[in-house]
Structure of Signal peptide peptidase SppA:
Amino acid sequence: MNGKRWLALLIAAGLFLISIGVQFATSLASTNFENVFGQQDELFNETVIEKGTSGNKIAVLSLEGVIQDTGSGSLLNNSGYNHQNFLRMLEKAGEDKSIDGIILRVNTPGGGVVESAEIHDKIVEIQENTDKPVYVSMGNTAASGGYYVSAPADKIIANAATLTGSIGVIMESINYAELAEEYGIDFNTIKSGKYKDIMSGSRPMTEDEEAILQTMVDELYDEFVQVIVDGRGMEEATVRELGDGRVYTGKQALDNQLIDGLGTLDDTIAMMEEDNELGEAQVVQYKTGFHFDQLLGMTAKNFFGSDMKLAGLQELIRESDAPRAMYLYSR
């Protein structure tokens, strides 16, 4: 390579580094570092939504999006529902002696079986270890896992048009065996046991495999039913009759005693104040703060643009490759 080519290469590399520096500086300039570094010990903060005058305090926690623990190790995972953060919010609200009541604002189609159970158990733990009331205010959708986590609440309030219910378990995978055969694609699988590749997309499912998976789904469904029986004080036969997977509007859910009333978040706050003598309470909402890992994620996305989007898609495919049982309302 002659001198001119080396010079051109160095100039191109220099321009690339300058471009990166400018983008990084832009990200830094638009960041409030007092918030970024001042709140590292707190993954969330309180925002006052009603000032109150009585000295009582109610905390509102928002459960938004699919209930799924996607981990925190990836720079791509810097927005949306964060399962571990939500569990910490619940724990803090339960332990904070200044909090007199907790309202969960639930707007989710559900999600993972394990994650839903962890939230449910944390709510029950708060109820057993404190005398704090826990109410649920349902948003547009509080279905399947969204209803599972709501069931133990002292009172459930929904909008008349809320979609809730969807009581049941689902396990899905894509079978592309016929498509692969059409295009002459062969799969080589080496396995330690005949069920090791159960629910593989590269071949038809056997009757034995379907029976095994159905047994798992039935077991998890029984658990879902019991959660409602315990939380709502309903007869098991009634829950099973209602729990055929269908969704209900808020009005239908009220008629079937799956919820306690119709109203908004403000109505739920007013009910909690009246029911528990917490009149004119200060109402705070827990919100996830902005942290350094989010800054890195945003900066990386600015640097690499579509490449980061492709990497995010690949990561999502890897995470969803293995079939799993879900308390999820899917359309």
Observations:
- The chain is about 45% helix and 20% strand.
- The chain has two domains: 1-30, 41-328.
- The radius of gyration is 25 Å.
- Confidence is low (pLDDT under 50) at residues 30-41, 73-79.
